[in-house]
Every structure is written in structure tokens, then in C-alpha cells.
Amino acid sequence: MVKVGIVGLTGCSGCQCEILNCQDALLKLLTLVDFALFPLAKDGEFDGELDLLFVEGSVSTFLDKEKLLKLREKAKILVAVGSCACYGGVQAQRNDEAELEQMIREVYGKWELPFELFKPSPLSDFVEVDYFLPGCPVDKKQFVYTVASLLNGVKPFFPKLPVCHECKLSENECLLLKGVPCQGPVSYAGCGAPCTAKGVGCQGCRGDCDFPNHQEMLSLLTQRGLSYEDAVKFLKVFRGNSFKVRGLNEKGA
Amino acid sequence: MEFHIDRAKVLPKANLWELLEGLKKRYKLIAPVKEGEKFAFREISDVSSVELNYTRTILPPKKFLLPYRRERFSYDPETMEFKSSFKAEEQVIFGIHSCDLHGISILDSIHLKENPDPRYLEVRRKTILIGISCFPDEYCFCLSTGTAFPDGANWDLFLTDVGPDYFVSIGSPKGDEIVLTFKHLFREIEKEDLELYKRSTAKKKRAFNEENLPDLERISQLIELEYDSPVWEEEAKRCLGCGTCTNTCPTCFCYTSVDVPDLTGKEVKRIEFITSCQYPYYSLVAGEHYFKPTRTSRFRHRYYHKFVGYPYQIEKLGCVGCGRCTAECPAGISMVKTIKRLRGVDEKELREVTE
Ligand code: SF4
Ligand code: SF4
Ligand code: SF4
Ligand code: SF4
């Protein structure tokens, strides 16, 4: 039987909960795979080889790092689940604005700690990641589709279309046109645009779409009342340290 | 028996609701409704929700002919047995504006001329199209594209508001059948009705503001000659590549497909979904090569297809002047303005010179 592992590093466990919410799919999966390692849902240790490993959370402590490196050795396929694992998550949004020492002093009141900490980082800073499933939390349908594809030897297909694609095809009124800040035009679709359907601008939780035009996005956000600095911070919430303003003057743009 | 199709009838406005009720009993009835500040074509359960005065819906009625996400077939990868769950329903789409009827006629040419798509054909056979007259807002330019009034033979009935009544043009035998079925609701046209009809046509023409209309004279040639114009890059700079302009367009037809297996791997569904030439992914081929590698090339591509490509394919422009691509563009990019800039003539100046 295919051995599957689902583990969390530094994060809120929301993505693992979302996986547990895939009830119908999980029932079917129980007859097809062995959830060998799933500490959130199952007691017991497992130290063997894994065919499929899903990792949630960012790498923020030496424990995260050790766990990740060890599991990577044992896993044939590693999938980063959720925006923390893919990009570092919301906890990484100001990584470029302060030194680690400054952050640690702010949080713990001192610099000397009995263990090693890092700036929250994506898995790919430490190990090779085979597939990325961003989202805060991960989208249930995309999770099931990924599992179904990988179990059957098919490469899952994720075109990095902008959120506007799903928003417009759901026939939502455009929030940007109504003056509401929305990151849809530069963000990676796949969520089904639930935020804009409820009148909340896209927060970009799934990161960048292909060749995003950040330059124009920033100017549209400033025209909707945000200062340039706030507009940049808005885009950085989920894009974390990987964020840099991209526009027309680079390859593919 | 003499074969005879009436060309037009009059429907007193008060009778419209009974007509809609009657249609709803017989078919799946689709019509525009108001939701918040927007309009959308929806399946109707209560005819009083049908909106008769609207400017434009976000998505064109195309979505009821070609769903944005559709299953082509499913198969068992072991036995290679194919199944299709496709089923077309008898439907009436009511309240379509002239531009969107022309849009459907373009889709008909695309999907039925060469290599007819049997599924599209079946949907079209089972669909009755009933149009309604409208007045332009600042984004409409159907007068320039020659689509301000219904034409051709792809629609069934067209209702023109002439005051107390609708002047009902009959476009097909199916339309004639509807009039016959509900003949107690219609009356014969009289000379005055014809006068009113002509007047309403003239009134619509006068409602356009020339500032909002592009000059589409020899547009294919213009676009081709201006291939290297700096206007493309200047406009593309603001383009987000969000795909809204093609996703809302009544004539765009591009789609992509992906095979989605179920967990057991026993059933694979081929899912087709609409895509846009404004996405880099659209032109991505093996080896990470992009046929349209720059934003400028993707931006220009849409204008090329609309004004050069479609004329080659179907001998019609690919734009019906509905204004959606401009009204919905989050970056405020205007098709009419781009065309005016490409022409490079300050029209006001020109008018002054010639006057
Ligand atoms: S609301 Fe946001 S996601 Fe939707 S079309 Fe407008 S910009 Fe795009
Ligand atoms: S709707 Fe506007 S911003 Fe979006 S792809 Fe089209 S032209 Fe570009
Ligand atoms: S190109 Fe724009 S104006 Fe022309 S038909 Fe399409 S959406 Fe309407
Ligand atoms: S190539 Fe672009 S403009 Fe032409 S039909 Fe396809 S999406 Fe529409």
C-alpha cells in the first residue's frame, strides 16, 4: 500500500485541518493508502520510507529543519502544503525589514536562547520540493486532485492564472473598479475566488500568478487610497521575503 | 398548404409577462436579472425578476451555449471505454441585446462552419434566442461594428421597444412557432407601428456620442500596418494580464483541457475550461518556450485576433462593440482609445480641418 505522511512545521495546522475536512475523499483514501505518519490525526511513531509526504508550515526553528531534512530523505515525493510551506507564510512578511536578532529580542526579550531559530522560511530554502500547493489554507479540491494525480502517476497541472480569471467567470462585480483594494490581478488562482465573491478584495494568499504586473497593481492600489508603502506591505503579507516589484521591464513581462 | 412566415407582429407590453410565463412552462428560461449593481443572465424561476432595462451583463449569454467549465468525456484508462454525460436541454434565452446576438452568430461561424462541433450544434438546435432593443452607454460602440441592430438568421425573435408595445421581428421558423403558440398575445402590425419602429431605430443611432466611437474603416490593414507602433507597448505597460477582457467577451472561444483522474484511477474526466491569450501560460509549449513571451505581444495579440484573425477565419470582425472588455478592465484600458491612438489622428483636429 502507498505510504502517505502528513506533517506540520511552524504554522497554525489550518491546512492539516482542511485536509481532515476532505471527508468523502479521506474515506475513499483509507482503502487505498496507508496514512503511515499523520501526527495531528493519528497516534504512533513511524520511521520508514514514505511514498508521498505533505508538509505544512514554515521552517522557523532547528527542530523544523531537522525534521524536514530527515523526512525529505525518506520521502519519494514531497509536496509543500499551504502558503507557509510554499512561501514562508504571513510570519515571513517582514523578513526583509529587520535582522533576526531584532525580531528575537522583540518577541523573547533577549537574544540568547537555548535553541536555534531562523527567520520563517519556505521549505524550498532547505530541501527540494516536488510540488507546491499554496493557499491559506490550502484548497480542498486542489489537495484531492493532487493526491488523485500523484497516486495514479500523473503530474498535477497548475496553470498560474490570475485570481481575476475565477472571479470574473463567477460573474462578480469587480472590486477594484468599485474602489476596493484587490490583489486578484497579480495573485495565483485555484481558490475559486471566494473572497471577492463576498466583497473582500483578494489578499494574495496563494502568492504570485505567472509574470505579475506588480508595477501596475501598485499604482491601482495607490489610486484606491493606499500609500505606496502600504500598498507594498499589502502585497507582501503572503508573498513574504520572495516579494520584489515586477513589471514590464523584465523577461516575460 | 401555403408555407408562410410572418415577418413581424406587435406584442402589447402588458402581455409580455404572460408570454414569459408561457415560455417558462415549456422551456428552461434564461434572462437577465439585476443582482446588486450588476446584471447577469440567470435561469429564471420567477418571471417578475426578469430585467428589461439593462446596459450589459458582466458575462455574455455565451455561458449557456458553451459553459466556461465543461466535461468533454470520461474514460477508463484500462479499457479505454469512453462515456459522455453531455445533455442539451431545450432552452430560451430571452432579453439578448443586438451585440450579443451578433456575438452568438460569430460563435456559430466558429463552431459550425468547418469541422462542426456536434455538441455545440445540439445546444444551438435546442436554444431559442429572443432579443430585446437597448440604448448605448459610454462603452458601447456597436454602431461602428455594424452590430447595433439584429441581422442575419441566427436569432428567433427580436423585441423592439416602441413605447406602449414591442415591435416583434420574427427571425426564424422557431420564432414564428412561438408567435403562433401564443397568438392571443400578439396583434398584427399596422402602418403606425412600422413608423414607430423606424423612429426607434433612428433614436438609437442618435444616442451614440461620436467621441466614444472608433473608426473601423480598413481596421485589419490598420492593425497590420501598425505592428511596430509604440502604442502597443505603452498600453500594455498598464495591462495586468488578468484575462478579464477575453473572459467577458461574447466572441472569444479559446479553451484548454486537462485530464483529471479520480482517486482510484478508474475514471478520468477530460475537463475543458476557458482560457485567455492574455495569460503567459496560453502560449507555453514544451521546453518552457513562450510563443507570446512579452506583455506587449500578448496585448497586441487580442487586437490582432479580433480585427485581423477573425476576418480571415469567418469574414467578420471578432468584435461586436459590446464594450465589456473596456467596462470591466480593472486597469481602465479602453479598446476604442487604443484604436484611436493607433490611427494616430486627432479626430477633433481633423474635423476642424475638413469643416
Ligand atoms: S474583484 Fe479583484 S479578482 Fe475580481 S476581477 Fe476585480 S480585480 Fe480581479
Ligand atoms: S482586462 Fe485590461 S488589464 Fe486585464 S488583460 Fe485585458 S486589457 Fe489587460
Ligand atoms: S472585443 Fe470587447 S467590445 Fe468587442 S465584443 Fe469583445 S468584449 Fe465586446
Ligand atoms: S486568441 Fe484571445 S482574443 Fe482570440 S478568441 Fe482566444 S482569447 Fe479571445
Quick structural summary:
With 253 residues, chain A is of the alpha/beta class. Chain A contains ten helices and seven strands. Chain A has helices at residues 14-20, 23-32, 62-74, 82-87, 100-108, 140-151, 163-169, 194-197, 214-223, 228-239; strands at 2-8, 33-37, 50-56, 59-61, 75-81, 117-121, 131-133.
Order of H and E elements of chain A: EHHEEEHEHHEEHHHHH
Number of helices of chain A: 10
Largest sheet of chain B: 7 strands, mixed
Number of strands of chain A: 7
- The number of helices of chain B is 13
The radius of gyration computed from the alpha-carbon positions of chain A, rounded to a whole number of angstroms, is 19 Å
Q: What name goes with the CATH superfamily of the largest domain in chain A?
A: NADH:ubiquinone oxidoreductase-like, 20kDa subunit
Mean pLDDT of chain B: 94
User: How many strands appear in the DSSP assignment of chain B?
Assistant: 13
The total domain count of chain B is 2
Low-confidence stretches of chain A: none
Low-confidence segments of chain B, given as residue ranges, are none
- How many domains of chain A? 2
Ligand catalogue: iron/sulfur cluster
- Percent of sequence in beta strands of chain B: 15-25%
Mean pLDDT of chain A: 94
**Strand residue percentage of chain A:** 5-15%
Topology record:
The complex is a heterodimer of chains A (253) and B (355).
Chain A (H helix, E strand, L loop, with lengths): L1 E7 L5 H7 L2 H10 E5 L12 E7 L2 E3 H13 E7 H6 L12 H9 L8 E5 L9 E3 L6 H12 L11 H7 L24 H4 L16 H10 L4 H12 L14
Parallel strand pairs in A: 1-2, 1-3, 3-5, 5-7
Antiparallel strand pairs in A: 4-6
Chain B lengths: L7 E5 L3 H11 L1 E8 L2 E6 L25 E8 L4 E3 L7 E6 L1 H15 L5 H8 L1 E6 L9 H4 L11 E5 L3 E6 L2 H9 L9 H16 L12 H7 L4 H7 L7 H4 L7 E7 L6 E7 L9 E2 L3 E2 L4 H20 L9 H4 L7 H9 L3 H8 L1
Parallel strand pairs in B: 2-6, 6-7, 7-8
Antiparallel strand pairs in B: 1-9, 2-3, 4-5, 4-11, 8-9, 10-11, 12-13
The complex binds iron/sulfur cluster (SF4) (4 copies).
